[in-house]
Amino acid sequence: MTVILGLTGSIGMGKSTTGRMFVEEGVPVHDSDAAVHRLYAGAAAPLIEARFPGTVVDGAVDRERLARAVLGKPEAFKALEEIIHPLVRQDADAFVAENRQKGTPIVVLDIPLLFETGGEDRVDRIVVVTAPAEEQRSRVLSRPGMTEEKFAAILARQVPDAEKRALADFIIDTGNGMEAARDAVKSVIAALSPAETPSP
């Protein structure tokens, strides 16, 4: 049986880095952000162009043009989500099916908005990546093009960190350094790995 582990966390908590640690430990990870990038250059492009004309250039979605079309417009943002979320879910379902067929013991679905999109029903266990609020803030505000306003708008759309932690099966705190996070990843994998059946 394949255990489906949901990996989530608010912006700037270190989720992507934690996802890479699972990959380094041999656990396949489906990255929703990477799937969106692929879809923007593929199946999603004509659908987005039809809804937001002028946002596709040379067959791929121009992220800056799309941002201008939806930023600060809740209805437009919702329309974009209605296009992209089902496609990402299909991509993730195909990933899980392929790994089930191979008999992979654990797979990770990296879902940034797992709680916000009702993704709990798609996974068996949930890992929430966290960090102290001051560290989260400094990480996010050091990103190119990030402003206090953008950061506040992103946080407003996300379930608060404390609520996420309360709903988690496992918590990985990336504020304690890379090695501590890697040890936590190994502990999660060990907890989910089937116990060896002792020989009679």
From TrEMBL:
EC main group: transferase
Entry EC number(s): 2.7.1.24
Main location: cytoplasm
Entry keywords, A to Z: ATP-binding, Coenzyme A biosynthesis, Cytoplasm, Kinase, Nucleotide-binding, Transferase
Reaction equations catalysed: 3'-dephospho-CoA + ATP = ADP + CoA + H(+)
NCBIfam families to which the protein is assigned, alphabetical: dephospho-CoA kinase (TIGR00152)
GO molecular function, one term: dephospho-CoA kinase activity
Stated name of the protein: Dephospho-CoA kinase
Binding site for ATP: G12, M13, G14, K15, S16, T17
Pfam families assigned: CoaE (PF01121)
Organism classification: Bacteria, Pseudomonadati, Pseudomonadota, Alphaproteobacteria, Hyphomicrobiales
UniProt subcellular location: Cytoplasm
Pathway(s) annotated for this protein in UniProt: Cofactor biosynthesis; coenzyme A biosynthesis; CoA from (R)-pantothenate: step 5/5
Function: Catalyzes the phosphorylation of the 3'-hydroxyl group of dephosphocoenzyme A to form coenzyme A.
Family label: Belongs to the CoaE family.
Alphabetical list of InterPro entries matching this protein: Depp_CoAkinase, P-loop_NTPase
Species for this entry: Nitratireductor aquimarinus
UniProt keyword Cell division present: no
